[in-house]
């Protein structure tokens, strides 16, 4: 099968891109190579770009997406990108959620601009759950409508990463667009993996990290948390037998007095190491992060799309270019939401 050429925007350290191309091992399972190749990758964070370029043969360019000259992009068949989500996050209360009125929330228009001009066969966009309700529910229909007016049949679905073998309760909205109706009719979102194939925090915790004093919280921090834990629900200790709560970009500044997931060793509280965080996000141990500071590693990891979840999405997309679906014994997932003009009325 000829490889589908992919252009990647807002690529970060490469979680989405790794999932698309496949060819990696995670927790003893091989995620085979998919018939996709990244031919163009852009991110405005030089540290994420450094991590990316340590791990991929194709190289990421440090660039603001608003500075992309569309005519200079190479030929590509699919556009992917997790456009900046801070503006749409439910947890982003300071400043209040601004959605598409915020400059960062406007960056998806750059994705639309490229789609309008280049008309690739597919696109995949990723964002946080909060995008569905941002701006009193007005932001998301506007975004979908822009994608549709660019010439695409668009579907979206809220996926839970732990349903696909990622040891994390991370919910993300995955938007997929099709230039051709034939591809749309063939597509289905990935089926949930069997219960026996799902992963929990205990699968990724590293014993050596339980002896790293730099990861443990001070007695003062613990005492402060314990004083308010009952009424404020702080000190969110994760169970080894369940997927971890969602990890974020501020992992380096994890606090016991927040909603951040933490871990207990005996009667002591600790944060996750950067490698444990990468494992929680489903990055293979072979993925290199150590060319940047640990703070930068945490930020890049927390912002990433889990590669294993994205691998399953890419696997479903490649079925569009095959004549039939493969047999599967996975568990079916909820039906897809198809967007149409009637649903997209803003007022």
Radius of gyration: 20 Å
CATH architecture of the largest domain: 3-Layer(aba) Sandwich
User: How would you state the average pLDDT, rounded?
Assistant: 87
Strand order of the largest sheet: 5-4-1-6-7-9-8-13
The residue ranges in which pLDDT falls below 50 over 5 or more consecutive positions are 89-100, 323-335, 341-347
Order of helices and strands: EHEEEHEEHEHEEHHEEEHHHE
Residues in helices, as a percent range = 25-40%
Largest sheet, if any?
A: 8 strands, mixed
Q: What is the approximate shape?
A: globular
Given helix and strand content, the structural type is alpha/beta
- How would you name the CATH homologous superfamily of the largest domain? Vaccinia Virus protein VP39
Determine and state the CATH class of the largest domain: Alpha Beta
Work out the helix count.
9
Give the CA-CA distance, first to last residue.
46 Å
What percentage of the residues does DSSP assign to strands (E)? 15-25%
Topology:
Layout: E1 4-9, H1 15-21, E2 24-26, E3 29-31, E4 36-43, H2 46-55, E5 61-62, E6 78-81, H3 108-118, E7 122-128, H4 139-149, E8 153-160, E9 171-178, H5 181-186, H6 219-232, E10 236-237, E11 261-265, E12 268-270, H7 274-280, H8 294-303, H9 307-318, E13 337-338
Parallel strand pairs: 1-4, 1-6, 4-5, 6-7, 10-11
Antiparallel strand pairs: 2-3, 7-9, 8-9, 8-13, 11-12
Helix pairs in contact: 1-9, 3-4
